[in-house]
């Protein structure tokens, strides 16, 4: 079986529940690197038992975060790097398409598509998830954003890689399934919202037009996210226009909580503009 000339990087922290299944599907890759942020469970032992190279990452609250830190500081043995999360599962069909696509000498990166689960149900409708998470080593880094402990996120979640050269798409989907309960979902999205509110404030300070590297989806989000109607419009778009209604209860709740998430971002921005959000206010000065 063909060994893919790709280094798979899996950033983790306390992922003993997900990691073993994720790593068990990576036997066709040149190397697997697990980047750990001080796990207190069996994550590191599972990674080493699976034959992965484990490196430790300690974040100081500023640039670089985990993925850029790997790209800048670690020697990857393959010419390509694929970033996977521990709750993501790949298939042989996905690997086969990778083998075909990365042989194109004119393409330096690929968007990946995902099949999401919520409430332990596969979402067949709604806004599709995709990430630019496969690219040639040396052809790009994740966006450099000069944050100062905006949130507890030590890994690039909403930052996209900025790639030099042509970018294509891998069509076979990656399975993304890690619903650890609603409380955990809401806590994660509260951290995401804190980060996004700070990001928008920084973009406003520097001028949105100057951020030429933003994707079309990012640009639309940051242009309109502070409008009162944005959460409602997002719910209507994903639940009605993108047919999330056909995913039943899971489709409704996923659309509802994503709209809640955008409303939290708006509220945090409003707080800061009123001078009430002291933490956000300090970050914006």
Short account of what is shown:
Helix content is 38%, strand content 23%. It is of the alpha/beta class.
List strands and helices in order, with pairings.
Layout (H helix, E strand, L loop, with lengths): L3 E9 L6 H5 L5 E8 L6 H7 L3 E4 L9 H8 L6 E4 L4 E2 L2 H10 L5 E12 L2 E2 L6 E8 L3 E3 L18 E3 L2 E11 L5 H25 L9 H9 L5 H12 L6 H26 L4 H7 L1
Parallel strand pairs: 1-2, 1-4, 2-3, 6-11
Antiparallel strand pairs: 4-8, 5-11, 6-7, 6-8, 9-10
Task: Characterise the protein shown here.
This protein has 285 residues and is an alpha/beta fold. The chain folds into 2 domains: 4-176, Spore Coat Polysaccharide Biosynthesis Protein SpsA, Chain A (Alpha-Beta Complex), CATH 3.90.550.10; 182-284, no CATH class. Helices cover 38% and strands 23% of the residues. The strands form 2 sheets. Strands 1, 2, 3, 4, 5, 6, 7, 8 and 11 form a 9-stranded mixed sheet that branches. Strands 9-10 form a two-stranded antiparallel ribbon. Helix 5 crosses helix 8 and helix 7 runs antiparallel to helix 8.
Report the sheet with the most strands, covering strand number, pairing sense and barrel closure.
9 strands, mixed
Q: How does the overall form come out from the CA principal axes?
A: globular
Portion of residues in beta strands equals 15-25%
The average pLDDT is 92
What is the radius of gyration computed over CA atoms, rounded to a whole number of angstroms? 19 Å
- First and last CA, distance: 55 Å
CATH architecture assignment of the largest domain: Alpha-Beta Complex
Query: And the CATH topology of the largest domain?
Result: Spore Coat Polysaccharide Biosynthesis Protein SpsA, Chain A
Q: What is the total domain count?
A: 2
**Strand count:** 11
Which spans have pLDDT < 50 for at least 5 consecutive residues? none
Given the helix and strand composition, which structural class is it? alpha/beta
| CATH C-level class of the largest domain | Alpha Beta
Tell me the number of helical segments per DSSP (H or I, 4 or more residues long): 9
The helix fraction, in percent, is 25-40%
Secondary-structure element order, N to C = EHEHEHEEHEEEEEEHHHHH
**What's the CATH H-level superfamily name of the largest domain?**
Spore Coat Polysaccharide Biosynthesis Protein SpsA, Chain A
């Amino acid at each position: 079986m063909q060994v893919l000339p790709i280094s798979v990087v899996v950033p983790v922290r306390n992922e003993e529940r997900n990691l073993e299944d994720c790593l068990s599907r990576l036997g066709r890759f040149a190397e697997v690197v697990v980047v750990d942020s001080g796990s207190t469970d069996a994550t590191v032992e599972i990674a080493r038992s699976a034959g992965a190279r484990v490196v430790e990452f300690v974040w100081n609250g500023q640039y670089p975060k985990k993925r850029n830190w790997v790209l800048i500081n670690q020697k990857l043995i393959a010419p390509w790097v694929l970033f996977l999360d521990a709750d993501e599962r790949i298939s042989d069909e996905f690997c086969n398409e990778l083998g075909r696509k990365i042989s194109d000498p004119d393409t330096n990166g690929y968007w990946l598509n995902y099949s999401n689960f919520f409430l332990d149900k596969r979402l067949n409708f709604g806004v599709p998830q995709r990430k630019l998470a496969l690219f040639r080593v040396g052809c790009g880094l994740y966006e450099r954003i000069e944050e100062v402990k905006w949130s507890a996120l030590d890994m690039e979640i909403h930052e996209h890689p900025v790639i030099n050269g042509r970018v294509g798409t891998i069509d076979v989907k990656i399975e993304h399934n890690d619903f650890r309960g609603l409380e955990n979902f809401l806590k994660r999205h509260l951290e995401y919202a804190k980060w996004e509110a700070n990001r928008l404030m920084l973009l406003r300070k520097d001028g949105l037009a100057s951020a030429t590297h933003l994707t079309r989806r990012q640009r639309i989000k940051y242009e309109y996210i502070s409008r009162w109607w944005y959460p409602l419009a997002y719910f209507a778009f994903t639940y009605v226009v993108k047919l999330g209604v056909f995913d039943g209860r899971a489709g409704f709740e996923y659309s509802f909580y994503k709209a809640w998430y955008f409303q939290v971002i708006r509220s945090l921005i409003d707080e800061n503009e009123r001078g009430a959000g002291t933490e956000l206010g300090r970050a914006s000065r």
